[in-house]
Structures are given as C-alpha cells and as structure tokens.
UniProtKB/TrEMBL annotation:
Keyword Iron-sulfur part of the UniProt annotation: no
Pfam families for the chain: NTP_transf_3
Keyword Transport on entry: no
Signal peptide feature range: none
Residues annotated as domain MobA-like NTP transferase: 343-503
SUPFAM superfamilies in UniProt: Molybdenum cofactor biosynthesis proteins, Nucleotide-diphospho-sugar transferases
PANTHER family according to UniProt: MOLYBDENUM COFACTOR CYTIDYLYLTRANSFERASE (PTHR43777:SF1)
This protein's UniProt keywords: Magnesium
Protein name per Swiss-Prot or TrEMBL: Molybdopterin-binding/glycosyltransferase family 2 protein
Cross-referenced InterPro entries: Bifunc_Mopterin-bd, MoaB/Mog-like_dom_sf, MobA-like_NTP_Trfase, Nucleotide-diphossugar_trans
Length: 536
C-alpha cells in the first residue's frame, strides 16, 4: 500500500485519508474514489489528495478484519459486521470469558497493522457485551499478513464465553451465641442475589451449631441433592484444621485449597464432596460487594474447574477495594469526596430538518438556545461544561461569549453523532467519574434537572448509567460513567449513547424529570411551539 499525496489525475481507486470537500459535496475519510469523484475534485480545483493506494495483494481494512474474525474459533460469541477496519465481537449469553493469551500475543506480534484486544481472563460478561475487537490500523493490509494471522487462529479456540449454568445450591450457616438472626437472614438474601445474576438458585438452608460433626452431617445431606454447597461459618477460619475444612474431610470429602491470595476473600475454603464442590465462604461474602468468593463461585457456575493452582494464581489483581463493612479496616478510610461530573453539551449539528437556520441560535426569551442550555449546565452541580462545536462553530462560540465553558471542536461533525461524543469525552477531566451528555436543543431541561441526575449518579457510586425519563419513557440527558469512555472511542456514524447503554449491560437508573426529558426542537413547528424564534 502506498500512502501520501496522490495527484488527482491518478487518484481513481485511492482511499481518502481525510474528509475532503468539493463544492457542496463532502467525501468522508476512508471513501474510495471513483471516476465521478475524481472529476468533481478536479472541477473544485483540487490537484492532489492525501490517500492510500492499494497494492494488488492488499485487502481493504474491512475485508481484512472480517477475514481474521471469520478464521477465529470461539464459543457463544458473535462477530458484528466490519466498519472502519474494525470487527467487534459480543457475548451471546452471560457467563465467564476465557481467552488463549498466547494466541492473542502471537497475533499481535505478526505486524503492528493488525491488532486484537480482549477483556481480561475470567472476566464476567453479560449477554450482548463486547468481549473482543479486531482492528486494522491502516486503510489496507497485505493479504500475506492476514493469512499469517488466520493460520494462528486455526490452532484452536481463541476465546469463549462459558455460559452460566442453572445450578442448585444448598447453604449451611453455623451459629454461635450472640449471632443475630438478621445477619443470617441478610446473608441468605445476598447469596440468593448472587446466584440469580447467573441463573442459579438456592434450594435449601441448614442452620447448625459451629461444630465439625453437625456441619459435616449437613454438608453430606445437601451435597446429595444439590450441585454445590456453600458454608458460612459463624467464626472465620483461623487454621487449616478449623471447623469448615475439618467438616468437609469428616463428611468424606477433600479440601482442595484453604486460603486464597485475594483480599477481601483470604479465608475462603474450597473442597469437593461426593463429586460436588463445597465452598467455605469468607466473612466478606455476607456483603454484596465484589470479593474473592465471587471469583470462585462465578467460575464454578460457568462450568469451569477451579484448582488449587488456579486460586494460587489469583494474587496479581487480587487486591480489591476495601469494603467499609469490615469491623477493623486495614487503614482508615478517607472522607469520601463527591464524585465529579462534567457536562458534554452537543452543539455541532447542522439542524438539517430546519431547512437552513441553525436551531441552536434560535431565541428563547431573547437568548440563543445554546447559551440558555450552557447557562443551565453551568448553574448545575457539574464541575465543567464542555461544548462540542462543528457546524457554524464561530457563530455558536459567539453566542456563548463570556461563559466559562470549555470548547471541543469537531471537524468531522457531518460524520454523525459519534464524532461529537468522541470529541467531547476527550476533553472530560481525568478525575471526573462521569460525563453527562446534554443535547443543545432541549429548552425545557433546567439546572435542577441536571442536579437530580448527578445526585442519582453519586448515589450509585458512579457505577450506573443515569438517564432522564418522562412517564417511564427514556429521554435525555444521559449521564455515562467513566467505565464507558473507552467504548465511546469505538462508536461510528450516527450512533449515540443509547447504543452504549444497551450494549454494555450496565445498571440504568431512570430519573423522572417531566416533559423536559422528551422535548427537543428538531423542526420549525416544534421550535416555535416551545416558544423559540428562528434567526437567519
């Protein structure tokens, strides 16, 4: 492939490196020029373009990505159609992701033009979640390189989603004097919730004294009728001969591993009894927060074996977040600072349905709509307001003169909504926990509405998508947690936040803000009905 300045007379068949305008015609980046395109560019006075010229043995970026994806051997994973040199692969069911790291490393070592990225080994995934992506860096790549990658892929399963199985679980809770009934009841609810997320169910519970004999008897009984037994000790394991591991052995089972290099979760016990797995749960498993118990439980429910060697290898990455339910935290917890949220105000669109005038410059009570929206964002609890400009950027900036906003220019605004999202997110502060996407054409959204979304986001500890709604119907704005920022970089075309919310499987919190969530002004009638006056 040849890349660089190409004389327009020889540009037929070349792939544009940058968006290019010829009169009223705009050619997108990666557009392949035909004879008519070349004639238009010449008529516009363009003598050369920056482009890629493919060699006879080159594959286009999309063809190369598709061929690599088609050569992969995987389970419960679906490859999407190629776009801009990328094929994304998504889970077809909820489960645990496994990957052949050596195979991925070998593919990524073939040539820097070909890349594959995946989730981490043993990551839990939801149905529809992206688990891997194939990306071709240039506009084309040698077919010989693609063939080399295909040969590596033929070597075996590259990755898989190990689907959760609807296992039956019996629970034992041991009791000592002073333990509260409410603690035992809560433990049961938390365990049921853990099983429900992966399709399992709790079928029986036994509450016994904290003694080897009674626990052994209960474990043997539950193992006969269930796929797994979980034991919650009233007192944490303090020795490898303590009640829980000793009870497993007394019942005729074996202890695979007592203790794990995951914190919280150190005091987990894993055993086998009558061919069934037995887990001695650490005390932290009474909390719904992630801990080492989740790592072992989820893998077992997904049908994966967990050996003593597997547990011993969990130390790297095994230092999890401190949980405040511990009676004696390892270190004092610092005062929790309020999570920062930046507003990304989208103001780059062309108002094409208005037939000419820019709706963002329409006057509402004598003030341009975009200024009114920006002022309301500045009046909220958001830390910063980032305004994405594109179409008529100078006029939009002039309408915002004097306001303390941050501008993000989007020269590719005509490519669709995704380009504006990318430009805005790129300007979000590094310490912001989330970004609230605010459309510039929603005149009814007030500062107080934005604050309600921010409050709900902080209540979720920055882990949920928070969305404005009206009478149960989703609307705008939408507040995205930082965990989605990387996925935004993969959006293409006129795809917005709604796609991410549906694809990534995060919890969604809907906040009722009234009609404001659903009123935008895409047409003259809608704008005038909302009280706006268009300006030429």
């Amino acid at each position: 492939m040849k890349f660089g300045l190409i004389p327009i007379n020889t540009a037929e068949g070349a792939v544009l490196a940058h968006a290019t305008t010829a009169g009223e015609r705009r050619f997108r980046k990666a557009h392949r020029l035909n004879a008519d395109d070349v004639a238009l560019l010449k008529a516009a006075g363009i003598s050369e373009v920056v482009a890629a010229v493919l060699a006879p043995d080159d594959l286009s970026e999309d063809a190369a990505a598709e061929k690599i994806a088609e050569s992969m051997i995987h389970r419960n994973i679906e490859a999407k159609s190629a776009a801009t040199g990328r094929v994304n692969l998504h889970a077809q069911a909820a489960g645990i992701f496994t990957v052949d790291a050596a195979m991925i490393d070998a593919i990524n070592a073939v040539d820097p033009t070909i890349t594959i990225a995946t989730l981490a080994q043993h990551a839990p995934v939801e149905k529809g979640q992206m688990v891997a992506t194939v990306k071709i860096i240039p506009f084309a790549v040698s077919s010989m390189l693609v063939d080399s990658v295909a040969r590596i892929c033929a070597g075996g399963e590259i990755f898989a989603v190990n689907v959760y199985q609807p296992v039956r679980v019996g629970v034992i809770q041991t009791v000592l004097p002073g333990i509260k009934q409410s603690v035992l009841d809560k433990t049961l609810r938390v365990t049921e919730a853990r099983l429900a997320r992966s399709g399992g169910r709790l079928t029986a519970e036994r509450r016994t004294p904290h003694e080897v004999g009674t626990v052994a008897e209960a474990a043997a009984s539950l193992a006969r009728d269930n796929d797994m037994v979980v034991i919650f000790g009233a007192s944490a394991m303090s020795d490898f001969g303590d009640v829980v591991p000793a009870a497993i052995e007394k019942a005729g089972g074996i202890v695979i591993r007592a203790g794990m290099p995951v914190d919280p979760g150190n005091l987990l016990v894993l055993g086998k009894l009558g061919g069934k797995r037995v887990i001695g749960a650490p005390g932290c498993a009474r909390s719904p927060k992630e801990n080492g118990f989740d790592w072992v439980l989820d893998r077992l429910i997904a049908g994966l074996d967990v050996t003593a060697k597997d547990i011993a290898g969990m130390g790297v990455g095994g230092l999890l977040m401190e949980i405040p339910t511990r009676p004696q935290p390892r270190e004092p917890l610092p005062a929790r600072a309020e999570l920062k949220v930046d507003v990304v105000l989208l103001a780059a669109g062309r108002s094409s349905r208005m037939g000419g005038p820019n709706k963002l410059l329409a006057l509402f009570d004598g003030k341009p709509l975009v200024r009114r929206t920006a002022e309301r964002a500045l009046g909220s609890k958001a830390s910063d307001t980032i305004v994405v400009t594109g179409h008529q950027r100078e006029r939009v900036r002039a309408a915002l003169s004097g306001l303390e906003v941050t501008f993000a220019d989007n020269p590719d605004f005509a490519d669709g909504l995704s380009s504006s999202l990318k430009a805005g997110i790129a300007k979000v502060a590094g310490d912001a926990a989330g970004a609230m996407i605010v459309l510039g054409d929603m005149p009814g959204v007030a500062s107080a509405d934005l604050d309600r979304l921010i409050d709900a986001f902080r209540k979720s500890e920055g882990r949920s998508v928070v969305r404005a709604s009206h009478e149960g119907r989703r609307g705008n704005p939408v507040l995205l947690p930082r965990s989605l920022f990387a996925a935004i970089a993969h959006l293409e075309g006129d795809t917005g936040a709604r796609h991410l919310v549906e694809a990534e499987g995060l919890d969604v919190v809907d906040v009722e803000i009234g009609k404001a969530a659903s009123i935008d002004v895409d047409t003259r009638e809608a704008l005038e009905g909302a009280g706006g006056v268009l300006q030429d």
